[in-house]
Amino acid sequence: MGTHYSQLSMDERNQIHRCSNEGLSLRAIARRLNRPTSAVSREVARNTVGKSYDAARAERATLARRRRGTIKLKSGSVLLNRVRALMAEGWSPEQVAGRLRRMNPDDPALHVSHETIYCAIYAVPRGELRNELIAQLRFSHKARMPRARGQDRRGTLPNMTSIHQRPIEVAARLVAGHWEGDHIKGPGNRSSVGTLVERKSRYLMLVKLRDGSAEATLEGFTRKFRHVPLAMKKSLTYDQGREMARHEILAKRVKIDVYFADPHSPWQRPTNENTNGLIREYLPKGLDLAPISQGYLNAIARQLNNRPRKCLDFETPAEVFAREIMNFQPGVALQS
Q1: Domain that residue 120 falls in
Q2: Rounded to 5 degrees, what angle do the CA atoms 189, 190, 193 make?
Q3: What digits encode the pLDDT tens for the residues 89-123?
Q4: Residue 146 placed within a domain
Q5: How far, in Å, CA of 26 to CA of 174, rounded?
Q6: Pair (192, 107) in one structural domain
Q7: What would the pLDDT profile of 114-172 be if each residue is shown by its tens digit?
Q8: Whole-model pTM above 0.70?
Q9: Residues paired with residue 182 on neighbouring β-strands, in sequence order
């Protein structure tokens, strides 16, 4: 009987990420994971960006390999038109998917899962078409409810909304306007810089903070988000740090939904974690961040936002972000 092989999990990839940052050898990492050294070596070689292994990139690449194939519900396609016609009759996505398979058993081109239908509906930008499609759903939720709701894990912050209640479109990066936030801290946590990254475009905003308090975070994030068009402020995902204790006020001021990741789960905010690594090239650990000006932070963000990214097919975050703004509101530009 041959040896059974299972692919690396996201938890294992995050362990590789952390162990690499600690300077452990590939052999030591493999022992910790109880995996062959060759498997860890291939994983690191395949997913190293610059000098650092990228766990989030590795996970995306794995999912992409599993999901290779054509997009089922293309705009204007016969299949999409049939789906819309059946939903107009009051059918649910599950009924539409089952009926199409029954009507066309020998034509896979006309088969589609109900989850694909849901994702296609919620990927449509806000407007009359989106409202029309959502209105045809049985419960007409404005946001897609997760398939597995999970337990709402509330911590010490009051009235947190769990990441497990976040719309499915956020994880899929289908629609722009969903952000991740964090703090980069100086020695002894005595100085802080806020980081805000838009998930789809990887567009970065850096925020000068007077300290790491909740009040300073509220003021700084409010100030930065005021320069962002409303259509590009859908959600913010953060960890459960005490600096977000004023999150309810922030949500009202900025008109944004705030979600919180599970404790000790940096992989739930991969865009921010990876971007923080890039920022550390300019603001290394151990540097006192108090003297750093907002102007200098803007210059860092400008450099990173104008750096081509492979994940964006070598477009820059600034180009993608600007295009997304124009798609929502022609003639509206981001104020620096």
Answers
A1: 78-135
A2: 80
A3: 767 787 788 888 888 888 888 888 887 877 766 66
A4: no
A5: 35
A6: no
A7: 878 777 666 655 555 556 566 656 544 555 555 444 433 334 688 999 999 998 888 88
A8: no
A9: 195
